[in-house]
């Protein structure tokens, strides 16, 4: 009897898992009739499948891809072999039109069945947090937090010999960890760097255990599509096994106001690759990395959530028959972990969780979109000013009042303002103003690649608490609630380019030096033009409201003051003229910065 492959989409309400988007690799696969089909992995931890180039959902069966169809509320892998759009005959076109399922529809149905578990509504009505206070996530975003890590093998899959407890302890905790190509730090390094030391995660590998069954029991998707039905079972079994080995999880219990007392987040690090980043035959049986609220109790200890992530990232090639086969394996990077722990802190996803191909949201600019996959996840991009503000790691200054010259320092700096908020005063009848722009200074550093350029990034926010909590804030393509305003007018999505330098045009202060039109959803525009945006010496400066503000005959006002360039070179004394730029003036023991145009 032929095996029926099903994913249930008419499921009961379930607790949501918040998973990483798949590592986007597009391959050509050989079908059973000898044709080649182009397919890309899509979905999430609730529903994994593949898509054709025109967005039709397909599933793998007997080594080939077939269209998914809806039968009594279930998405079933049909017997109709799939082809690229240009290779479909009339019968196939008709079948797709009448019976085919779009990938975006499958994801939307899975989202509709979720019971939100993410505490992602912000502390304040504008969607931002308060400096020095924790966001309302499962894990406190302030201070030192301990995470237990359990290494988990399967009855039929164990860790590589080199993947020892010491190795994984280093991956999570060692300062400057760089064992793999493009690795630039540990998970601990990442969060200390993003929070300027305000959030210090401490990871402890507490045990290494073997689950009672093979990996497919926990990760199987019906041999083609669906949910990792037994992922919670794997987590509970791992916890119980560690307790039986004498692990005392009371050392990780946290009691804080507004949160359930217990272990905030347990990390399950499992052997082998993950479904989200794998493409070979049989990879649909792997577990998909995700963070999820748990609510499991053992020995009177409550475990509030878990992150489950994979050991290996694979490289592929095509064999002589055009089949995809893995050719190498490396310890996976920290990017997926950084993305998922962002959920534990309270952050939502900033990609379109309904259809990842429908719109460009934050893309590489945020680790909560696709930025955690910089260099395949080995050197994830740092958090945006919004994310840092949400988590209480930076103070955001509202830009209002009289015309003036403003300066922006990198968000890792302690020298001055690191983020300006430009509110849309039409977006609220009071002063909360949920729609606004955030301006931040991007400069190359450890967690930001030099190839992406330097300058000012303008982020457009339209906060709605319900959309944040439901994790659907960017699912309406005509109303993206978290996106950016590119300086060159073009959003360069990852799917169109894997050259990070193509994103440099998104930044202001280089070729584009003003913003006089701010696209908004309420009203026409913001009455807050900025001019003369400059990116010099690691500092971004601009004129707010008036392009002539701050410009004066500096020659007559300086007297004998000493004048230096921003990098410290003395250029003249006060009796001489200055060319346009930013300068440091020192007079009578007092230093100040001035802008000359």
Give descriptors for this structure.
Peptidase_M6-like_domain; M6 family metalloprotease domain-containing protein; protease; alpha+beta; 4 domains; 7-stranded mixed beta sheet; disordered N terminus; 10 helices; globular; 597 residues; 7-stranded antiparallel beta sheet; single chain
Radius of gyration: 26 Å
The overall pLDDT average reads 88
The major β-sheet equals:
7 strands, antiparallel
Strand order of the largest sheet: 1-9-8-7-6-5-4
Low-pLDDT segments, ≥5 res: 1-14, 553-557
- What fraction of the residues are assigned to beta strands by DSSP? 25-35%
Please report the total strand number as a whole number.
28
What is the percent of helical residues?
10-25%
Question: With helices defined by DSSP (H or I, 4 residues minimum), what is the helix count?
Answer: 10
The coarse overall form would be globular
Distance between the termini: 80 Å
Instruction: Domain count, please report it.
Output: 4
Secondary structure category = alpha+beta
Helix and strand topology:
Blueprint: E1 6-8, E2 14-15, E3 17-19, E4 26-30, E5 36-43, E6 48-51, E7 57-61, E8 64-71, E9 74-81, H1 90-99, H2 103-112, E10 114-115, E11 143-153, H3 165-173, H4 187-195, E12 199-210, H5 215-219, H6 231-244, E13 266-273, E14 290-298, E15 301-318, E16 324-331, H7 335-345, H8 385-390, E17 397-398, E18 404-408, E19 419-423, E20 435-442, E21 455-462, H9 465-470, E22 482-484, E23 530-536, E24 539-544, H10 554-557, E25 562-565, E26 570-573, E27 581-587, E28 590-596
Parallel strand pairs: 2-10, 11-12, 11-13, 13-15, 17-19
Antiparallel strand pairs: 1-9, 3-14, 4-5, 5-6, 6-7, 7-8, 8-9, 14-15, 15-16, 18-24, 19-20, 20-21, 21-22, 23-24, 25-26, 25-27, 27-28
């Amino acid at each position: 009897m032929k095996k029926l492959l099903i994913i249930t989409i008419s499921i009961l309400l379930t607790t949501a898992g918040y998973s990483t988007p798949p590592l986007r690799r597009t391959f050509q696969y050989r079908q059973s009739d000898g044709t080649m089909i182009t397919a890309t992995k899509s979905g999430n931890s609730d529903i994994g499948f593949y898509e054709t180039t025109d967005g039709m959902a397909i599933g793998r069966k007997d080594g080939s891809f077939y269209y998914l169809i809806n039968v009594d509320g279930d998405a079933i892998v049909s017997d109709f072999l799939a082809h690229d759009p240009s290779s479909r005959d009339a019968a196939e076109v008709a079948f797709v039109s009448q019976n085919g399922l779009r990938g975006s529809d499958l994801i939307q149905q899975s989202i509709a069945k979720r019971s939100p578990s993410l505490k992602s509504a912000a502390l304040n009505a504008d969607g931002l947090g308060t400096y020095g206070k924790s966001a309302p996530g499962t894990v406190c975003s302030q201070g030192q937090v301990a995470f237990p890590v359990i290494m988990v093998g399967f009855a039929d899959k164990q860790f590589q010999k080199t993947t020892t407890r010491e190795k994984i302890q280093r991956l999570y905790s060692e300062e400057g960890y760089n064992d793999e190509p493009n690795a630039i730090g540990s998970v601990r390094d990442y969060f200390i760097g993003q929070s300027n030391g305000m959030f210090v995660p401490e990871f402890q590998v507490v045990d290494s255990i073997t689950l009672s069954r093979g990996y497919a029991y926990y990760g199987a998707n019906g041999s083609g599509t669906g949910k990792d039905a037994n992922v919670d079972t794997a987590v509970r079994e791992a916890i119980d096994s560690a307790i039986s080995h004498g692990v005392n999880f009371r050392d990780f219990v946290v009691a804080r106001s507004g949160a359930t007392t217990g272990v905030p987040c347990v990390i399950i690090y499992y052997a082998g690759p993950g479904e989200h980043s794998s493409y070979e035959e049989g990879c649909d049986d792997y577990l998909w990395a995700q963070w999820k609220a748990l609510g499991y109790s053992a020995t009177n200890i409550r475990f509030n959530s878990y992150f489950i992530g994979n050991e290996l990232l694979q490289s592929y090639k095509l064999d002589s028959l055009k089949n995809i086969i893995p050719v190498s394996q490396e310890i996976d990077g920290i990017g997926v972990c950084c993305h998922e722990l962002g959920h534990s802190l309270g952050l939502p996803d900033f990609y379109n969780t309904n259809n990842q191909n429908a719109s460009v949201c934050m893309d590489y600019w945020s680790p909560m979109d696709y930025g955690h996959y910089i260099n395949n996840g080995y050197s994830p991009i740092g958090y945006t000013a919004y994310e840092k503000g949400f988590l209480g790691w930076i103070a955001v200054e509202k830009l209002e009042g009289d015309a003036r010259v403003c300066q922006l320092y990198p968000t890792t700096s302690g020298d001055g303002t690191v983020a300006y908020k430009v509110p849309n005063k039409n977006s609220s009848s009071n002063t909360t103003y949920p729609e606004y722009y955030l301006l931040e200074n991007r400069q190359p550093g450890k967690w930001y690649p030099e190839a992406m350029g330097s300058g000012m990034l303008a982020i457009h926010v339209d906060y709605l608490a319900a959309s944040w909590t439901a994790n659907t804030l960017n699912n309406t393509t005509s109303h993206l609630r978290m996106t950016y305003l590119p300086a060159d007018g073009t959003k360069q999505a990852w799917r169109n380019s894997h050259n990070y330098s193509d994103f440099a045009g998104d930044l202001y202060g280089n070729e584009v030096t003003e913003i006089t039109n701010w696209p908004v959803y309420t009203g026409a525009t913001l009455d807050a033009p900025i001019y003369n945006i400059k990116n010099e010496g690691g500092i971004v400066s601009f004129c707010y409201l008036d392009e002539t503000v701050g410009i004066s005959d500096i020659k007559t006002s300086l007297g004998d003051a000493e004048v230096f360039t921003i990098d410290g070179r003395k250029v003249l004394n006060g009796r001489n003229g200055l060319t346009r730029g930013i300068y440091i003036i020192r007079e009578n023991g007092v230093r100040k910065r001035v802008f000359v145009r």
